[in-house]
Amino acid sequence: MFKVLVSDPISDLGISLLVEASDISIDKKTGLSEDELVQIIGEYDALLVRSQTRVTERIMTAGKQLKVIGRAGVGVDNIDLEAATKRGIVVINAPDGNTITTCEHTFAMMMALARHIPQAYLKTVGGEWDRKSFVGVELRNKVLGVLGMGRIGSEVAARAKAFGMTVLGYDPFLTEERAEKLGVKLASVEDVVREADFITVHTPLTPETRHMIGKEQFSRIKKGVRIINCARGGIIDELALVEAIDAGIVAGAAFDVFEEEPPTKEHPFLSHPKIIVTPHLGASTVEAQENVAIDVSEQLLHILRGEPYKNAVNMPPVPADVLSKLEPYFPLGVKLGSFAAQIASGPVKEIVVGCSGELADVDTQPLTRYIVQGVLAHHLGSDQVNAVNSMHLAKTRGVNIVVNKSHASKGFTNLVSVTLRTDKEERTVAGALLNGFGARITQIDQYPVDVAPEGNLLLISHNDKPGIIGRVGTLLGSNDVNIATMQVGRKLVGGAAIMVLGVDKAVPKDVIAQVADLTDLVTAKEIQLY
Ligand SMILES: NC(=O)C1=CN([C@@H]2O[C@H](COP(=O)(O)OP(=O)(O)OC[C@H]3O[C@@H](n4cnc5c(N)ncnc54)[C@H](O)[C@@H]3O)[C@@H](O)[C@H]2O)C=CC1
Ligand SMILES: O=C(O)C(=O)COP(=O)(O)O
Predict the structure, then answer these.
(1) Is the dihedral of CA 92, 97, 99, 103 positive or negative?
(2) Do residues 431 and 332 lie in contact, with contact meaning Cβ atoms separated by under 8 Å?
(3) What is the ipTM, given to two decimal places?
(4) Looking at residues 135-155, what average pLDDT do you find?
(5) Could you report the per-residue pLDDT of 24-50, keeping only the tens digit for each?
(6) Pairing assessment for the beta strands 275-277 and 250-255 based on DSSP bridges
(7) What spacing in Å lies between the alpha carbon of 283 and ligand 2's midpoint?
(8) Among residues 416, 439, 462, which one ends one of the domains?
(9) Which residues pair with 352 in a beta bridge?
């Protein structure tokens, strides 16, 4: 008998599959503190949650029998994935079941914002008949900027067209062809900021999306814009938004999510007349809750019964014999993928994986999964992509995967390479495991290098002229950026060259811009590999 603990409000109908299963017993205990969960989790094989329960490492350590954590929804930012993976606990989510519901909530918020419905309601039920203060705006003929064109963003775009809106879409995976299919104009964040009358965000919260609309964007944003966030708190800088509204730049905002949930009573959104809020209700419909609970219950049963399953967010199942040969290459694969994703500009259309040397005789499919994970995680968020779901995600986003194998490995026992083909360019990174030295990046584009793939790196392309290294070093030094390692690569004396610097901390954006402005510098890009 497997014991399942449901610790958040989850649809009864959705989990009827579990309730009726003869090998499952279910306990529902919602609203427990971490201490209370730690006390009881030891007897359970599975934990079923939404976003309220924070599944911490402490809870997992106490969950000695815990085999699976099911998230009835999309975001798994409330679950410590690393801790789960370390313990072999499979984390599954239900990414498709609440798409439409959240999209519809976005429209509810957009229309409530355009027509001041919450504010007008409050006055009316308070006994006032105020028809002057709440003159709204139409959606028709307005420009809607959608940042994040995944499941929810694409549905929002489709419905916006029915309202007669022009849709500008931005997503690192949005190609010209897909944009055309969706009837959306492919745009940059900058285009959206400058042109949109309404902006809605539908990305995960990642280091890249955090404050993607912040102080800097508000300084250029179209006057009178209205902003909606039904994705994750923190994508829009909350304080900068309040300032922009108070300065008369932004006309209003509608937020379902907060940087800290629940927000404190003093949170400026809660008393602002131009900001409307809901308490993370995006996924809260009868239908969505049934859908996500059914999805996650089905998978949970498969996992507990040892059957194949989908949508595992964390655990890569690799056969033992293959694992022993390939495992050392998995971290290198993720880092090569991530490195390539960080240097390539434009939506990725194709990932070409090269495995040469002894690896040519091994089933390298699991390694490919890790490389694709590295590429996709840079944009989709490292909590959403893993070696189990990376190929599926690449497929659903129309990214083609090609694998080339060869016994010739340029003097290395094994060489792994990743080439990304985007709308704009083709970029290659290769690496190997060197005896006694560990993982190394051995090639960037056409240049041979020897770089440890870790920490903060600065990739500079420049003209091979005397003095350039000194100028870069002086500029970084004067900005308190310490250079730990340096590699220079070139094909021809005096020709195009690259420099890869390992630096002790993240380099501020303005310093990178100054580096890029140096004489004989072509580009400067920071790469983070963790
Ligand atoms: N308010 C609520 O109750 C709910 C919130 N959500 C949240 O909504 C968000 C979107 O969910 P889905 O559409 O299902 O996810 P998805 O994974 O299908 O779409 C996210 C998209 O964001 C894109 N993206 C990543 N970085 C980006 C960047 N820097 N700029 C622009 N786009 C970027 C990705 O390429 C991807 O296409 C997630 O954060 C999810 O947790 C989802 C359901 C309910
Ligand atoms: O699915 C998601 O990402 C959500 O944010 C929904 O959260 P919830 O299940 O309503 O607590």
Answers:
(1) negative
(2) yes
(3) 0.99
(4) 98
(5) 999 999 999 999 999 999 999 999 999
(6) parallel
(7) 6
(8) 439
(9) 402, 419
Residues 6 or more apart whose CB falls under 8 angstroms from that of 179 comprise 149, 169, 185, 186
pLDDT of residue 318: 60
Kindly state whether residues 115 and 90 are assigned to the same domain: no
Q: Please, which residues bridge with residue 7 across strands? A: none
Report the CATH number that the domain containing residue 458 is assigned in CATH.
3.30.70.260
Over the stretch 515-525, which tens digit does the pLDDT of each residue have? 999 988 999 99
Q: What sign for the dihedral angle of Cα 103, 108, 112, 118?
A: negative
Tell me the residue range of the domain where 41 lies.
2-95+287-304
Number of domains in the chain: 4
Closest ligand, as measured to the CA of 187: 1
Task: Give residue 313's pLDDT.
Answer: 87
Q: Tell me, yes or no, whether 250 and 386 share the same domain.
A: no
Which residues are within 8 A (CB) of 231 and not within 5 positions of it... i.e. 6 or more apart? Answer: 148, 152, 201, 202, 203, 204, 205, 257
Residue 56 covered by a domain: yes
Confidence of residue 295 (pLDDT cuts 50, 70, 90): very high
Phi, psi torsion values for 374, nearest 5 degrees: -60, -40
Active site residues: 232, 261, 280
Rounded to the nearest integer, the mean pLDDT of the chain is 93
What span, in angstroms and rounded, lies between the C-alpha atoms of 483 and 334? 24
Provide the terminal-to-terminal Cα distance of the chain, rounded to the nearest Å.
40
Contacts of 163 (CB under 8 A, 6+ apart): 139, 140
Q: Is residue 141 part of a domain?
A: yes
The Cα 389–Cα 372 span in angstroms is 10
**CA 330 centroid distance within chain:** 20
Residue 53 CA to ligand 2 centre (angstroms): 11
Q: Is 428 helix (H, G, I), strand (E, B) or coil?
A: strand
**Does 296 share its domain with 268?**
no
- pLDDT for res 145: 98
| Percent of the chain clearing pLDDT 90 (strictly above) | 79
CA distance 407 to 498: 28
Q: Name which residue sits closest to atom 2 of ligand 1, judged by CA.
A: 282
The answer to whether the CB of 150 is under 6 A from ligand 1 is: yes
| CATH classification at residue 391 | 3.30.1330.90
385, 373 contact by CB (below 8 A): yes
**Which of 8, 101, 102, 208 maximizes ligand 1 atoms within 8 Å of its Cβ, making it the mutation to test the pocket?**
102
Confidence category of residue 319, pLDDT binned at 50, 70, 90: low
Report if residue 394 sits inside a domain. yes
- Omega prior to 172 cis, within 30 of 0: no
What residue's CA is closest to ligand 2, atom 9?
Answer: 50
Which residues' Cβ are closer than 6 Å to ligand 2?
Answer: 50-51, 73-75, 98, 280, 282-284
Q: Which band of pLDDT confidence, cut at 50, 70 and 90, is reported for residue 421?
A: very high
CA 206 – ligand 1 centroid, Å = 10
